[in-house]
Amino acid sequence: MIVLKSHDEIETMRVANGIVVEVMDLMAEQIVPGVRTIDLNAMADEHIRRRGAIPSFVGYHGYQHALCTSINEEVVHGIPGDRTLQEGDIISIDCGVYWDGFHGDHARAFYVGENPPATISRLLKVSEEALGHGIAQMRTDKRLFDISAAVQHHVEAHGYSVVRDYVGHGIGRQLHEEPQVPNFGRAGTGMKLLPGLVLAIEPMVNAGKADVRLLDDGWTVVTQDRSLSVHVEHSVALLENGPRILSKG
Ligand code: MF3
Ligand code: CO
Q1: Looking at the predicted structure, is the pLDDT value of residue 249 above 90?
Q2: 169: which strand partners?
Q3: How far apart are CA 37 and CA 84, in angstroms?
Q4: What are phi and psi of 84, to 5 degrees?
Q5: How would you class 249 by CB atoms within 10 Å of its CB: exposed for 0-12, middle for 13-18, buried for 19 or more?
Q6: E strand or H helix at 96
Q7: pLDDT, tens digit (0-9, with 9 covering 90-100), for 53-95
Q8: Within its chain, how far is the Cα of 129 from the centroid?
Q9: Which burial class, exposed, middle or buried, applies to 107 when counting CB atoms under 10 A from its CB (0-12, 13-18, 19+)?
Q10: Beta bridge mates, 205
Q11: Closest residue (by CA) to atom 1 of ligand 1?
Q12: Average pLDDT, stretch 36-58?
């Protein structure tokens, strides 16, 4: 069942996502060589609770943390721990916030250190652009897989691949609602997009092949070929006149 949201509900989701944006801005300051991912998680958790909100991921299918911290070849669902970030790493941080009955969900990718090599800045840039192209398809004259196709096209045009085993999703009173939002698909197909639809659009972009593997910890997803991977995500509402990115300051 697809649950459309009212303007008031979308406003509430904007507040939830606003707290996630604050967390990401904090992460941008705190991500430096030597920091442990468990300490980043503690800062995020503390910030969310100080705002009177709850980290959405804690307790989700037994997950214990506020953040997913996915480093280098880790695609999504990397678990915060004792590992320290090294100059030259990339890290995708994913965070959800539950506030006043609704969830916000947003992910950003960061380079650890000062001057990213061109290969890495290109991967980060193309991933953000792919997300942007997907969001631009959120219009009432479009269909669901127009979003998917736009993401896939941009990623593959640059020689990268999109992960197929994990997808974006509807979001609202539940963290994961219908519909699923794949990062691959055929333009002009899928459900017609309706005002009040709120989607978490989240490309997972591999520098190498699309295949992924689940580590023995039961959570961490890595690229099979160990190539670098980037995950970025926005929660986006479809209004009568087009997309409104809720996870943006
Ligand atoms: N943030 C992920 C998503 O974008 C879900 C995280 S799973 C969790 O859908 F267990 F870590 F919460
Ligand atoms: Co999500």
Answers
A1: no
A2: 180, 200
A3: 6
A4: -100, 140
A5: exposed
A6: strand 90-99
A7: 999 999 999 999 999 999 999 999 999 999 999 999 999 999 9
A8: 13
A9: buried
A10: 162, 230
A11: 94
A12: 98
Q: Tell how far the Cα of 82 is from the centroid of ligand 2, in angstroms.
A: 24
| Contact partners, residue 42, CB within 8 Å, separation at least 6 | none
Domain boundaries, the chain: 7-245
Angle at 152 between CA 164 and CA 186, to 5 degrees: 90
Q: What is the CATH architecture of 7-245?
A: Alpha-Beta Complex (3.90)
Among all chains, which residue has been given the structure tokens 């707290």?
Answer: 19
Which residues have beta carbons under 5 A from ligand 2 (an ion)? 105, 200
| Residue matched to tokens 């691949």 | 161
Which of 20, 37, 45, 63 to mutate to test ligand 1, by most ligand atoms within 8 A of the CB atom?
A: 63
Quick one: angle between helices 144-157 and 118-136, nearest 10? 160
